[in-house]
Amino acid sequence: MNLPNKITLSRIFLIPVFVAVFFLTVIPYNYFISCIIFIVAACTDFIDGHIARKYNLVTNLGKFLDPIADKVLVSSALICMLVKPGVLSVMWQGDWVMIVSGLCVAVILARELIVSGFRMVAASTGLVLAADKVGKVKTTFQDIAIAMLLAGANFFGLATVGKVFNVIGLVCLVIATVLTIWSGAGYIVKNRKVLSAPVEKKSEKTQEENKEESGGESV
Fold first, then answer.
1. Per-residue pLDDT, 123
2. Structural domain of residue 128, as residue ranges?
3. Which stretches of the chain are assigned E, i.e. beta strand?
């Protein structure tokens, strides 16, 4: 296993650490500590990709692990914050904050699932779809939003600073959601040929081999 893949794995291992610290309120300033852990994990996304491209260390394992690590990290952070309303309601209180935040998280997670499924369909037809620039900007705003919201939840007892971070975080979350819809729709429209591509049929020889491997039973 090369260095970029080890860095990617470290990001995956940091996810349960992040979740544990987030919910362990016995730890002083646990939200701020979880913010630091999230930032470190998010930075490894840039580091592993940079090293892999610079030194030609791109592998299929890396291509598999990297997007999974990114999606699980962001999804875990967003879901955790929804479970703890106090993280989102530092500046403004009221049900509308949770409703807006919930809608943003739902849109972001739905987009990731749809695009992932879309890429799977493309891969089955032999097409490789590259990420677009809007998607990368969207990811940046997501990371900023999560970091700001976590930092603002209990910033060393400084209420004013916490409120400023909270506002920045909520604004970035809304911007990330708009970019999520834009990039997701644009991604599918730009690669709509995938949906009209014919499905390759397995040859009779391949079908017979699969049948023999499964013991002659229909699956």
1. 72
2. 3-196
3. none
